[in-house]
Amino acid sequence: MKLADFVVPGAILPNITSTDRNGVIRDLVNALADAGELAAEDVEVIAKAAIQRENQGSTGFGKGVAVPHVKHVKIPRIMAAIGRSAAGVDFAALDRSPVYTVVMLLSPPDQPEAHLQAMERIFSHLQRDQFRRFLRQAETVESVVELIREADEAPAG
Amino acid sequence: MPLRRGIGVSSGVVIGDALVLETEEARVPRRIVPRDQIDHEVSVSDRAFESARKEVAAEREQFAARAGTELADIFGFHERWLGDVKPRKEIASLIRSKHYSAAYAISVFMRKYRRRFQEMGSPFLQERARDIQDIERRLLHHVGGETRLELASLKDPIIIVAHDLTPSELVALEKTKRLLGFATDAGGTTSHTAIIAAGLGIPAVVGLENITSNVSSGDTLVIDGLHGVVVVNPDESQRSTYAAEAKHLEEVRDTLAELTELAAETRDGVRIALLGNIEFPLEIDDCINRGAEGIGLFRTEFLFLEADPLPGEEEQYRAYCDAVDAVAGRPLVIRTMDLGGDKCHRGGGWEVEKNPFLGLRSIRYSLQNLSMFRSQLRAILRASVHGDVRVMFPLISRIMELRQAKFVLSLVMEELEEEGFEFKSDIPVGVMVETPAAAICARELGRETDFMSIGTNDLIQYTLAVDRTNERVAQLYSPADPSIIRLIRRVVKDADRTGTSISLCGEMAGDPLFAILLVGMGLRTLSMAAGNIPRTKKIIRSVSLADAIRVRKRVMSFETEREVLNYLRDETRKVWDEI
Fold first, then answer.
1. Are residues B206 and B159 in the same domain?
2. Has residue A58 got a pLDDT over 80?
């Protein structure tokens, strides 16, 4: 599975302005709706589910990255949005550092294996210092898309 | 009087008369049948498949009743293969296109099929080739093309000598209650026949290469399964030596049995936890009967090796629950799938690798085959609510792999929670330290795990760059090599610094020569095959921690494996002269 299979280019937000966790999650879900991947009326219920999931345990696994994710019946296919915050957002991360890069994965509940595969891909790439650094520095949608393309070509082990 | 060395696969000494089985390649004559007989030959072949399949199914059930379903599953492959339509079709087309007799068509097809496995080179697949041979014999028996030894007619206790024994032949022989032991040209410690022999407690020596040409039926044989020695026609003095040895072994067993209820504790009261290593849940009782305080290594490969398709979550869950039941509240460390190298399951898209031991195996395979890994972790987590289950990742060579594996574990937990399954969310997570990389970075690994277990078999192989199954270099493989001793010492110290519990679960743990040293190096948990527990306990109970530390200090000063071994032998003999 490649990142490009599920990252929605129209839902890449290189300059997120929300300063709190819930705001960032809402921005990303909205971006997926704006890109035509989700119905506008489902945005709130999906965002709430993602926030609820985050409340159960932070997906900020350290080093400035968080990977919020949620499964919901209103999600038609596996999709991901990427947000970048120059100022950093408090995600209650494991290492207590602010989060600069958020990769959010949404999955339908009936595809647990594909969800796991996609999460593992995201995690593996984000574990690489260089990918993480470049993603944090990418200021345009194009540069993020390019970075994903490069990452897919040299898959992380 | 000649003494022949092979591989002892099941300890015990036995003396008896040899019966040499003529098991050589079935010589089936090339027979062409008239056109009007072709349909008949096809139906003969089909019927042979059907009766052979029923026969295997019946044997499997009988065997399962005595030895448990896991061991019996070794026959599952035979049964599934015989039930498959593809081989039948190919044989029928041989009969129709070439006018072969059923027997000849079967033998042509099977030989070609077997060769495919043999040529693949891995010991596991060669083992499969033996299973194929077993199936061929059965089929030929049912078409009347070859007569098998009428095993049921055996009258006197005998020692079987054969080129090779298939698992079903061994089981059939054992059923006669006349089998004292066996010796074969072929085979190794990992062969199914060897595993079954060990499970049934039948003294056996395999891998003798040419024992069949050196023994005739009626010769007297000594089988020394402990040392892997066969003596042909022992003279009077050898005979009495081995008879005494057999008696002595029995006495030692009795002495050691008295220790079962006592703790493994040094003379000055340092407790050492002795745990068992198992392959099948049914081995747990044996471990506990011999004094194991739990299971330190449950290898899960057997669930995968025989399965095609791969075992589902439910099947695994049942196996893990069986194990949890059997340990009855004691700790149970389940190691995730450790296939690859020389062991591959069928299907699964294994590619032939130039260096399988340095290739896609173990945790690396799991992380690249997430759906398999996921179902295993789900099964382990679901079983975790029923007892003290711990999960261990094998062959970790970098911290990234550990983090990835833990991440997948956390995702699987989320899934189970969403689905309403119960599981132990704080299940202890550990790693095997079996690569030099992991040993050198043990401190980092220790910070992110609840426990670590040193797997010496792989650690020695990778550290010394020796394949111990390659007889040309096998003598270089040694747990006593100073590099290994120092590496282990370092890992134990690093684990202590991070407060992670540390154990050792390779074969070295069960080797009595190393017991004192391992205690002196700071290990307080050793996990080993059930059979090694009593004598390890005996040695531990005979030394003090001060002795053990003195031994460790001395050993750390040696430069060669030889010095280490000689010294350890002397020190061990001082406390227990049965070594």
1. yes
2. yes
Q: How confident is the model at residue B290 (pLDDT cuts 50, 70, 90)?
A: confident
Which of the residues A123, A128, A131 would you substitute to probe the B interface, choosing the one with the greatest number of B C-beta atoms within 10 Å?
Answer: A123
Domains and CATH numbers, chain A: 3-153 (3.40.930.10)
Classify residue B528: in a domain, yes or no.
yes
Flag whether B348 is in a domain.
yes
User: How close does chain A come to B370, measured CA to CA in Å?
Assistant: 7
Relative orientation angle of helices B38-67 and B192-200, to the nearest 10 degrees: 40
pLDDT at B25: 46
B268 has a pLDDT exceeding 60: yes
In the predicted model, is pLDDT for residue A156 greater than 60? Answer: no
**Chain A partners of B418 at a C-beta cutoff of 8 Å?**
71, 109
**Crossing angle between the packed helical segments B38-67 and B85-98, to the nearest 10 degrees:** 150
Q: Active-site residues of B: which are they?
A: 192, 505
Higher-pLDDT residue of B333 and B474 is: B333
Distances (CA, A) of B28 to B42, B103, B171, B204: 17, 7, 25, 31
CA-based nearest residue to A106, from A21, A19, A23, A39: A39
Q: Are residues B425 and B511 in the same domain?
A: yes
> What local confidence, expressed as pLDDT, does residue B462 receive?
96
Would you call A116 and B411 a contact, using CB atoms and an 8 Å cutoff? Answer: yes
The full DSSP string for B430-488 is: EEEE-SHHHHHTHHHHHHT-SEEEE-HHHHHHHHHT--TT-TTTGGG--TTSHHHHHHH
Do residues B138 and B224 share a domain? no
pLDDT band for B349, please (50, 70, 90 cuts): low
Please compute the mean of the pLDDT values over residues B67-93 and round it to a whole number. 82
Report pLDDT for B103. 83
- Residues, chain A: 157
Q: Which of B411, B416, B447 to mutate to test the interface with A (most CBs of A within 10 A)?
A: B411
How far is the C-alpha of B144 from the C-alpha of B138, rounded, in Å? 10
Which domain covers residue B521, as residue numbers? 265-575
The whole-angstrom distance between B304's CA and the closest CA on chain A is 19
Q: Are residues B301 and B339 in the same domain?
A: yes
| One-letter amino acid of B541 | R
pTM of the model: 0.74
| Sequence letter at residue B267 | R
Sign of CA dihedral B374, B380, B385, B386: positive
Q: Tokens for B217, please give them.
A: 């039926």
Q: Report the candidate in A128, A146, A122 with the shortest Cα–Cα distance to residue A6.
A: A122
Cβ-based interface (< 8 Å): residues of B facing A? 367, 370-371, 374, 400, 403-404, 407-408, 411-412, 414-415, 418
Report ipTM for this prediction.
Answer: 0.90
